[in-house]
C-alpha cells in the first residue's frame, strides 16, 4: 500500500497541475479582446452616418450581440421602437431619448434600458459625437412609427 501511495500521490498532483493549466487555457480561449485600434467600423445603410463595431455577435444579425455604436453629434433617429429590449451604456457625448414627450439626456457614464416596443425618439445631442455600447439578447432592429410627438 505504501508503494502505491508513494507513486499515486505524485501522479495525482501532476494530474491536478495539468487540469489547472488546461482550465486556464480553456478560459483564456474564451476571452474576447478588442483594443480600439482593432475595431472594424461599419456604417449602417441609410442611417446618416451611424456606425457600429461588433465585439460579439453581429448588430446587423438575428442573434445576441454586443457592439460599440457611434452617432454623429446632432444626429436624431425618427420616431421608432425596437422589437426587443435594448441596453445602452453612453461612453462619450450626450445621448437622449424622448418618451411620451419627455426628453431624458444621458451624458457619458450613463446606462439606460429601453423595453422592447417602447415608442421613442433618440439621438446624439449637439457638440460631440456619441459613443455607445449596446447589447441585446436578439438582433437589433429599428421599427419606424407614426409621429405622435416632435423631438426637441
From TrEMBL:
Domain of life of the organism encoding this protein? Bacteria
Q: Is Ligase given among the entry's keywords?
A: no
Which part of the chain is the Cupin type-2 domain?
68-121
Keyword Signal, does the record have it? yes
Q: Which controlled-vocabulary keywords does the entry list?
A: Signal
- SUPFAM superfamilies referenced in this protein's UniProt entry, alphabetically: RmlC-like cupins
Q: What is the name attached to this protein's record?
A: Cupin domain-containing protein
Q: Where is the signal peptide?
A: 1-25
Report the InterPro entries cross-referenced here: Cupin_2 (IPR013096), RmlC-like_jellyroll (IPR014710), RmlC_Cupin_sf (IPR011051)
